[in-house]
Amino acid sequence: MAITVRRPAPAVEHRADGEPVRLPPGPRFTPRNVLRFVTDRPRLLREMADRHGPAFTMWIPGFGTTVVLTEPAMFNELFHIPSDVAGGVEPSLDVMFGDGSIFGKQTAEHKRHRRVLTPPFHGRNLRAFESLVEEETRKEIAGWPVGRRFATITSTNRIALNIILRVVFGAEGAEFDELRELTPKWIKFGAVLFSVRPLQWDWGPLSPWRRHLAMRRQFDDILERLIVRAQADPGFEDRTDILSLMLRARHDDGTALTHEEIGDELVTLVAAGHETTATSLAWAFERLSRHPHTLGRLVAEIDEGGATYLQATIHEVMRTRPTIDGTTRRVLVDRMRFREWVLPHGVNLYTATSLVHNDPRYFPRPDEFAPDRFLGRMPDTYAWTPFGGGVRRCVGATFATMEMAVILRTVLTTYRIEPTDEPDERIVFKGLPFAPARGGLISVTRRERPAASPGSPTEPTGCPYHHEKPEPS
Ligand code: HEM
User: Fold this and answer.
1) Which atom of ligand 1 lies at the shortest distance from residue 114's CA?
2) Which CATH class name applies to 31-467?
3) Are the CB atoms for 165 and 242 separated by under 8 Å?
4) Share of the chain above pLDDT 70, in %
5) Pocket probe mutation, ligand 1, options 387, 432, 471, max atoms within 8 Å of Cβ
6) Which of 44, 83, 121, 336 sits CB 3.0–4.6 Å from 399 for a disulfide?
7) ipTM score here?
8) How many other CB atoms sit within 10 Å of the CB of residue 178?
């Protein structure tokens, strides 16, 4: 059972302008540490915390000097620092997806973007999306091979991409097919460009940057067609896709969002929302096939129309295999005080999620895959952080949880997953998510008698995400 470590937000003044810099101790820069940060991150961070203490400073590729935090109480403090003191990391994905992306926004601008993006992914809208998720899952899994091992990630990627494209663009027909072809290619390419700074320079007509711009133009062209179609729709005012919501949204001064702003934000949602969810699902299949007892209990519950153990299982998958290992904030003021340290402008703070998720002080017997630890209780906000925290916590967290629940339920009522005693799949870094090395291999057989109509995983009873705290404003 997770220990609750919540404590009141510290009433300390975080600005320390003019004071001498005092960074926590940390390792010297070595190419080996840089390499290990990419290939062996959880173990490296554990070693560093044991050697230097629960907060230490190290150089992180892509971000530079970074203070790594390894305790929930520290995450709590960080997530409560005003966003004009510790804000979003820079550079961020807005380098690839444009100035209109929420990733590049700070303070009031960031808040404004969240006001537009948060409501569609919450509350009663979720229920409306459930049937869409089930429909896309059924379509995809109808072709799963029986009795032969296959990597689930290919399938979960397709399902999650189709879902997010439909939710975001309301797209059907030719434009949907074009987006399905273009966006994953562009986002993958963008992730490479994002991590290698020189690739962001325009070296000429054959340069990667020009290729990126060509894909952007193609995207803008599809978007314009979708905008014309949406606005011509007699039911435009009632449409719930995010594109229509953004077309109807107004800035505080009453002006509409430009099409460029809308495009930047929408591609951000697709980038943030599909590979993360798909990878978590592949981990769920990898974990379940190695834990037949959990799998059996889960199937029995689903057949009876329940969803409590399902939710606990999703929480445990995300504890043991978080796809995003940590979140980063950047010091935006001249000097920022954090506990006994004084951090200069531009330094980053990183919350080491997987370290806390595997710390026996917060999760007893952390190596065990034990959904019971979350049964009937919500995970602690600062010890369980696969979706980050504070005012930048993942906008799609509730949506992603619903999506995973519906997909798992649909798969488990259709197929029987064969247990395996193969070793666990290795955790490998795939540019953004930490994924199973072999893509979540499973083998399935068709269930002879489809289960009686299962209940909704978003039933208020037993559905923890209906109890989630409202978004911080
Ligand atoms: C299992 C699936 C997912 C995981 C593990 C995940 C994880 C994360 C994490 C760790 C962050 C950073 C939070 C922080 O800095 O505190 C984030 C941000 C974000 N996520 Fe997700 N995410 C998932 C699904 C989604 C989905 C489905 C969407 C969209 C529908 C989405 C949209 C976003 C957006 C827009 C942000 C930026 C929020 C901001 O800067 O204010 N994510 N996500």
Assistant:
1) 41
2) mainly alpha
3) no
4) 92
5) 387
6) 121
7) 0.99
8) 17
